[in-house]
Structure formats: structure tokens, C-alpha cells
Amino acid sequence: MPEHTPAKPADSVVTGAGILLDHVTKRYPGQARPAVDGLTMEIPAGKTVMLVGPSGCGKTTTLKMINRLIEPSEGRIVVDGDDVTQMNGDRLRRGIGYVIQAGGLFPHMTVATNIGIVPRMLGWTRERVAARVDELLELVSLDPEQYRDRYPKELSGGQQQRVGVARALAADPPVLLMDEPFGAVDPITRLRLQDELINIQDELQKTIVCVTHDFDEAVKLGDWIAIFDEGAQLVQYDTPERILGNPANEFVENFIGSGAGLKQLTLTRVADVGMEKAVLARPGEPAGDVLARIVAAGHGHAVVVDSRERPIQWLSRRKLDRLETIGSTPDPALPVVGSRATLSDALDTMLVSSAGAALVTGRRDVFKGVIDIKTVMDAIGRSQDAAALDSTDAPVGLNTGIFSTPATGDEGDDSAPADNPGPSGAAGDAPAAP
Amino acid sequence: MSRAPAPGRAAWRGLALQLAGIVAAGLGLAGWLATADLSKTELTTLAPAALWGYTVEHLQLTLVAAVIVLLIAVPLGVALTRTAMRRFTGPVLTAANIGQAAPAIGLVVLLAFWLGFGFWAATMGLVLYALLPVLRNTIVGLQQVDARLVEAGRGMGMSAAAVLLRVELPLAVPVMLAGIRTAMVLLVGTAALATFINGGGLGILITTGVNLKLTSVLVTGSLLVALLALLVDWLGRVVEQLARPKGL
């Protein structure tokens, strides 16, 4: 996917901080094998890194060691260039957003009180906290007037999860840790929350570390995916494209499951691929005129849009032939996809429609263009080509060995992603050996 | 949100009924005492001032014991739910269970031989007897707080003390108050035994009534203890209604 590597949009600024786990080990008393064994992992600033793996693989332990809810037995945690392994844990955690499953809202506090917890601990004035609460509720698409004084039990699961995200963002922390954030909501709500998180992240550019057991979620949300085996053995740490197109070994292949090709379709959004123009028509026009326009343009169909540019009908030459004037009744079976939808959604819509193509709409359902199956096929081909190339900017992720040694395949020889200034300093001053 | 007040209103209606019942029974007792044909001994024993004195003594026993119980059981319960102390929870609950399982009268009398007869021995017995419900409900109340909420609090940078005060205790309040109410009712009933070791209270009416075969005195004493227990129960329920955290 193109937006991983090249320059970011000009209007968004990275507010995240890089994180470095430096030879981090966690041993629990009475357990023979460490839960996390000598993990070295770089998390680039402003990126979303998904930690995935089977249950008990140590991914959650790894996450909780970043904010030291679990104290590492050995190794260092470096956030934004500062070694935080020795600092006061409570102070560290106030500077790191933390989202857990189902939001983890305090049931005896209102939405506003829940969101204001960290700002109040940081000594913000009452007015500043109140203003921030409203701002955050807007950010997570909840109307402040309606929701700020509600109690969590008066919210749906999805709304609770949104408030959970708002609460984690309250003091504008550079890093957001999420522990299976969308595990407790229904699939439809989960998709919507994922889309919203992507939008929020586009705007805020935090560093997000997110644990999930859902590989599809990792593919959808992650700039980078770290796949763990037991003992937090980092099996592969790469972009979703490359993990899907070029799995490191059988374990990763099994973990991806079937349909890697189809999953690649979830990586690209309709807006990112080319759309074709269409001949537009308005209700009330003589059908003959429209037919003439299609023939002149060499198209097979005309799109009828209403006064607000929303598509209402999609007429073939044959249908136009039979009509006198264009009608204004919307066709309920119209194959329409939003421009933020994934290619996977678009393909699904196309397969259902007889046309083998779908209409793309943008904001306020305004018609934008037509996408067809050939466009989708081209996109798959392109992403497979991209995956075959070696990624030169992958962050470091190792379990053993020495940080600067070029080893373990294609991921050990680069100490920092090219496009992120944050953690490169952190990576640079890492010791050569523990 | 519109559904929220309904259960609360039902609870308040129940409370109003309970209070009305207690007041009616109290008035009935007073009316009967005023009109009944009582002997001289009965009149002396049941004089309003004497009854008031016994009731005050009884309440003193109950309240002092309750305060001591709270001071011991709540901090102990909190301590026993902290990670470092959790392994002691079982043994301590067992010990507290013994306090409650032992017959109250035996406990009170044994303590009297140790501490001497009087108010404080009685209070000690009552404390041992009422410790368990408060301790157990404090522990259960804190244990039933969703561990993920504690983790969410710590994850946001709240200190362990802040999580305890602002998350765990408020959420444990309903269960803890139920335990405290149970203990108070137990205390009012058990305080009637204090009279055996010269500890005062309404129990004296019952023993006098039994010893001198004065049924009116016996009935008055028993009714007053019962009404007092119901009144304390009512007060406890009112506090529970008022102190329940909103949003639960």
C-alpha cells in the first residue's frame, strides 16, 4: 500500500514518539520458560504496530511492559529517546494512553469524568478539562451535549469503546497502547470502530501499539505487523503487504490462514485506485439524449444522479432504449460503495451486481465514479509486485543476538525506518550487547 | 435513562412502609403500656425514663461495638485484598468465622471472665461476633470489582491508593454497606445478652421479665429490641440507597 512508505500528507504532523524495547525479558517465578525472551523491537514514531500471535505467546505481556504495568525482568524500555525503565511507573503511565477491551470505563463515573481522569491528575483546570472532554467526544463521533453526562451503562458497547479511546487520548499522549480494543463488540460495530480509528490516526499520527488475535484486524489497522510465537519469539515483523505476500515461514502462513490474496484486498481502499468517469443523467431528461451521449462516449451505461449528486439509477443502453424520459425513483439494488471502503468490500458489491462494477460515492454520498473488476485485479497485481521487493525500511525486531549485527534475513540490517526521525536516536544509543 | 429512577422509587416505597410499620408498632406498644393494668413493680421497671435509659445503653453498646468493628474490619478487609496479603484471606476469614460460629452467649460470658464484668467485656464480645459480616463483605465487595477496571486505572497512571479510593471502594460500597447493616442488626439483637455480664441494655427487661414472671416486662423488652433492630435495619437501608454509586 503506497501510504506506508512515502511522504505523509502535508497537513498531518506526527505527534507520536518512537519506542524501543531493548533486550527485554520477562520471567515469572515458577515458570521454566520466560514469557518474553530477550525481545528487541523498534516501534517507529507515528505508526501503528499490531502485535499478533496465538494466545499465551506473550504479546500482551510485551504490550504491558511498555507502560510497565508489567515490570520487565531484564532489558530496557526507551520511549522517545528516554530510558523509562527506572522512572516512576505512575508518571510514565500518565503519559501513555491505554485502551482495554470494552473500554474499561469506570461504571460509577460519567463519560466526562471518565475522560477527564488523566487531565485532572495532571492538574489541568476544570475549564480546560471540560473543553478537552467535548473536543474528544467530537473526535470519536459522539455528541458532547448528549453523551457527556451519561453513565457507561447508558451507552452501547461501541460507544463505550469510543469513550475508552477518548479517555486514552485525553492528555494527548504520544503513545497509545491498545489491548484487544475491539474484541468485545459485534462484527459490524468492530468494522466501524476500526474505520474510525484509522481516521483518527490519520489525523493525530500517534504511535499506536495494539494487541489483537484477529489477523484481519492487524492487516487492516497496522502499518507494521509483528507476529509472535511462544515466548514472544518475533517470527516476522513487516508490513501487512509483505507478510501476506511473502510469509517468513510455515508458522506465519498458518497464522494468516487461507485467502491471503483476498486479504490483500482489504489493504487498499477504493479511493486509492483509479476510478472511471461515467456519463451522468438527470431525472426528467429525454432517454434518447442520454443514449446518444453514451454512444458518443463509448460507454455501456449512464448514471442517474439526483439534485444533490447522489446516484439513484444506473441504466444500460438496452434500458435507455425502452425509456421515454429518465425516472426519479431510486433503485434500491444499486451497487454502491463508499470511497473509504476496501477493495474487498467493493469486489463483494460488484459480484452481487450484474454489472461487474460498482458506483463509488464520496462525502454525503455524492457520486464520484465507477470501479470495475479489472481495476481490482490490477491492484492485486501491483501489491503482489510490491510485496516481492525487499523492504529496506523495516523497523528492527529481534529476539536474540546483537542489535547492530546484520543478521536474521532481511530485517536486521537497518536500524531505523527512513521516514521517521523519532526512534532513530533511541536505536543509535542502544548498547551493542546487554 | 428514563428507566433508572423506577427501581429506586420502589425501594423508597418499601422503606417508607418499613418505617411506618416500626412507628405503628412503637405507638401500639406505648399505647398498651399507658392503658394496661400494671402492678407497682411493673410500673417502676417500665417507667418511660427507665425504658429510655435502657434503650440508650443498648444503643451505646451497639454503636461502640459497631465503630470498633468498622475500624478493624474495613482496613483489614482492604489489606487482605491487596496482592501481597491475598494468601492470608482464607485463614483470617476462618478465624472470623469462628467468632461468629461460637454461641454469642458463651462468647460474652467467657470474655467477662477474662476482661471482668461490665460494658467493655460486653462490647468486646459483640465486636467479635459482628466482625465477620463486615470483614467478609468488605473482601467480597472489593473482590467483585472487575479486575480490568483496576488495571485500566493503573494503566492510566493512577496510583494504587488512588485506584483503591476512587475505583475499588466506591464500587464495593453497596456490598460493604449490606454487610455493615447485617452486622448492626446482629449487634442490636446480641446486645440484649450484655445484661448477663452486667453490661446494661434492654436485655435487663427480658431477664427481669423471665426471672420475676412479669410477662409485660418481658414482652416490652423483647419488642423494644426487635423494634430497635428493625429501625437500625431501616437506617442502614436508607444509607445504602443514598450511598449507592450512581451509574451502577
Description:
With 434 residues, chain A is α/β, with parallel strands linked by helices. Chain A has two domains: 2-264 and 390-410, Rossmann fold; 271-383, CBS-domain, CATH 3.10.580. Helix content of chain A is 34%, strand content 20%. Chain A has 17 helices and 17 strands. Chain A has helices at residues 59-66, 89-94, 111-115, 117-121, 126-139, 144-147, 157-168, 187-204, 215-221, 240-245, 250-256, 260-264, 287-297, 317-322, 343-352, 373-388, 422-428; strands spanning 19-26, 36-43, 48-52, 74-79, 82-83, 96-100, 175-179, 207-212, 224-229, 233-238, 279-281, 301-305, 311-316, 336-338, 357-361, 367-372, 397-398. In chain A, strand 11, helix 13 (287-297) and strand 12 form a beta-alpha-beta unit. In chain A, helix 5 crosses helix 7. The longest helix of chain A is centred in the middle third of the chain and has 18 residues, at 187-204. Chain A is globular. The two termini of chain A are 37 Å apart. The model of chain A is unreliable at 1-10 and 401-434 (pLDDT under 50). Helices cover 80% and strands 0% of the residues of chain B. Chain B is an all-alpha fold. Chain B has helices spanning 5-35, 40-45, 48-81, 89-101, 104-115, 119-143, 147-155, 160-190, 203-211, 215-243. Chain A binds chain B through residues 67, 69, 90-96, 98, 100-102, 104-110, 117-118, 121, 150-154, 167-168, 177, and chain B through 1, 148-149, 151-159, 162, 166-167, 170-171, 245-248.
Determine the number of helices of chain B (DSSP H or I, runs of at least 4 residues).
10
Low-confidence stretches of chain A: 1-10, 401-434
- Tell me, rounded to a whole number, the average pLDDT of chain B: 86
Overall pLDDT confidence of chain A: 82
Radius of gyration of chain B: 21 Å
Write a concise keyword list for the protein shown above.
heterodimer, A: 434 residues, alpha/beta, Rossmann fold, CBS-domain, six-stranded mixed sheet, five-stranded antiparallel sheet, 17 strands, globular, disordered C terminus, B: 248 residues, mainly alpha, flat, disordered N terminus
